[in-house]
Amino acid sequence: MLVMLHAALWLGIDNIWARPLLLAHLGVFLVWQPLWRSETRLSWGNSLFILGVSLAALTWLNWWILAFWVGGLFALVGARAFSFYARWQRIYHLLVMAYLLAVLLLYITPHLFDLPAFDEVTRNLMTVALPLMLAVMALIPVEREKPNAVQAIDFFYVLLLFTLLTVLVLGTLAFMTLNQVGYLDALLRTLFVIAVALFVLGALWHMDFGPFGLQSSFSRYVLSIGTPLEVWLKQLAADAQRDSGPREFLESATEHMIEMPWMLGMAWVSAEGHGTLGNASPHRVELADEDLNITLFTRQAVAPTVLLHMRLLVQVLGYFYQAKRREQRLREMTRQQAIYETGARLTHDLKNMLQSLFALASIAQSEPARAQPILQQQLPVLSQRIEALLGKLKAPTPESESREIELMTWWEELCQRYAHRDIEWKLEHEGERPALRIPAEMFDCVADNLIENTLNKRLREPALHVRVSLDVRSPSLRVSDDGSAIPSGYAQKLLRTVVPSEDGLGVGLYQASRWARQNHYKMQLKENEPGKVTFELSPDA
Length: 541
What we know:
Blueprint: H1 2-11, H2 18-32, H3 44-59, H4 63-81, H5 87-112, H6 119-139, H7 155-178, H8 183-206, H9 214-223, H10 229-241, H11 246-257, E1 263-270, E2 273-278, E3 283-289, E4 292-298, H12 304-366, H13 368-394, E5 404-406, H14 407-417, E6 424-428, E7 437-439, H15 440-460, E8 466-471, E9 476-481, H16 488-493, H17 507-518, E10 521-529, E11 532-539
Parallel strand pairs: 6-8
Antiparallel strand pairs: 1-2, 1-4, 3-4, 5-7, 8-9, 9-11, 10-11
Helix pairs in contact: 1-2, 1-6, 2-3, 4-5, 4-7, 5-6, 7-8, 10-11, 10-12, 11-12, 12-13, 12-15, 12-17, 15-17
């Protein structure tokens, strides 16, 4: 491409071969061009536009058109020169920039300003110096970039470099006209003015003027590409804060997203369903984030910068959508866990009630005369507990919603419920009797599990003495016995996990301990020695 351009310039624009060489130069430029992706298929309209502009430029060919064209080539090459990581690639592009700059300033511009004094200099330049530079570029080793290193044209750099060249050429012309100086003198003055201006802008760029500084103001302008991103993000955050499902969130977020000026319509498909908004168009972009697939229809072809912006929007939308899905799954898991824990706890409550019924039935069979008053006293209590248990089975409630009862009322009901069992009851600090309220169901679960476990232990150790005490000030409940100690291996795991045991000391106590922690109480094995084994339920400090 550069060789054909050099040949056309060396022959001169009035030569008969200049226009064919420039037409071939344009054709090779289309092969090299970095504006369109190589896999893009040009439409008939774009092809006719390129052909029309090329023929028009060649028909009215002059030095101004050549200056404009070489300046554009310099800007395109310069915008990519520093984006290459391979060393020889950078050197090659820097040499191309030097060649184009020399052609523009030392050959085209003197002809543009009609400076016959430079004819010999330009002839030597085009005959010796620049062809030698082209030969050096041809001998530079070919070094390929990494496959994933894709260079894209930064149009801001292109515009900046082209503007600098335009200021350099026109500034030189202004100095030559106003100050009546030579071309080289005017060129050096213009370069000096541009250097000073760039130095001042660089100093202002790095100075801290707060939110009104040059860097912050320019960054806000560059980062804004004409889309109401900030407004959409605020609406997206507001939609995410609402207690809604993933589908409702997607519907609301896409309704706000389609209001962007460059959006004509969109369609989305996910595990929650699908939806369409707006109208379809030939220009579509398909983006995906995990199981969320979004098709965006735009009013015109999407530029690479806007495409990157759209990917960012879809990623943000997908992040909030996945968070909503995780939130929904967490609610479902929490609900299922509550049901499982409630079922496990109610199973042990039912087991304790069946054991109480079994004890009453045993008394009725062995001592009919003694059983009558005990049954009259205990059956109403058991009926109330069975009725409460059936209600929980129909509609499980969270542990935090359990009913509260006065401490002394609960203690009296507990003593009455186990009055027929051989248990010692002790009330500590009985004279104070403060009006404390406790979660009755949780205290019932803990007391029943501890008492039933000690009574089961009595079956293996008939002389076992069971003692239940309550400290009304704390309040703290203690269940102790004078039997054998719990093995150390079980004692370390007890109340923390499920422990298999013949006496059933694992699941029931584990569930009771979890329930106590949820109500800001703690269960612990206070004492574990032969002749003194004590479990305690007390408030968690």
